[in-house]
Amino acid sequence: MRIDLHTHTTASDGTDTPAELMAAAAAAQLDVVAITDHDTTAGWEPALAARPSGLTVVPGAEFSCYQRTADGRRISLHVLGYLFDPDAGALRAERLRLRESRLARARRIVENLAADGYAVSWPQVVDLAAGGSVGRPHIGRALVAAGAVPDVSTAFAELLSSRHKYFVPKQDTPVLDAVRMIRAARGLPVFAHPFARRRGPVVDDAVVAAMTDAGLVGIEVDHPDHGPDDRADAARLARRLGLVPLGSSDYHGTNKPTVLGACTTSPEALARLLEIPAARTPVAS
Ligand code: AMP
Ligand code: FE
Ligand code: FE
Ligand code: ZN
Question: What is the pTM of this model?
Fold first, then answer.
């Protein structure tokens, strides 16, 4: 069984349409794939409509969150939610708010770049996002088109990360609120890439414990942005806090070098996850 529980499509910052993701999952010989676009469920319907027989699909989303440190620094972190009710009011309203916040901040990042002479424009980035949740990878694609960088990864390394002067933060959700909202929508909250240090500072164990108290059920252990030490730390936390340890590729099509199924979840872990009551069940033949 090959199980990949974290992927993106054109509904957010991936480059495969939801239907193309289904075909790519079959080609990668996955048995189970989750669709987890940033702050939206827009990919669920087209993905499920295109699901090949033999492939099980887990509908989900990835929520942009933050946590403040004792000294007031703001740490960004991502929480996956699986199998929640897409019509649950508070979470639905929060997704809309997050998507709108993405628009305003992406526009400001584009303006910052343009003011410094980069040949990128807001209408071009809106076009690239094609109605999906707008993210920095779309700005990265505009920078590639402008000839400023060879690829999206270089755009992040040189211009788009939170360490660069063009960066503008989004109005994300306080992480404990996000975990509670996902549970209130009868979904399964999972801490995504907890130790992806390349993206910025990471939270300490006490925050993960607080997230667990708020209803967190799982944590990504195997993830392309985790080194061997990070995986060992995450596995230790999972054991200590009773969280289900997951592995996922965080596939983004050609916006990132990672291939589908680059990291996977064990059948035992998926079974543990699915024992927890949720609003929906995975869609299988
Ligand atoms: P945003 O949601 O607009 O803040 O952008 C964050 C997204 O950018 C993540 O979900 C990844 O898809 C992508 N990303 C973050 N860091 C990198 C990187 N170093 N290279 C390529 N893509 C990245
Ligand atoms: Fe992304
Ligand atoms: Fe993420
Ligand atoms: Zn992701």
Answer: 0.97
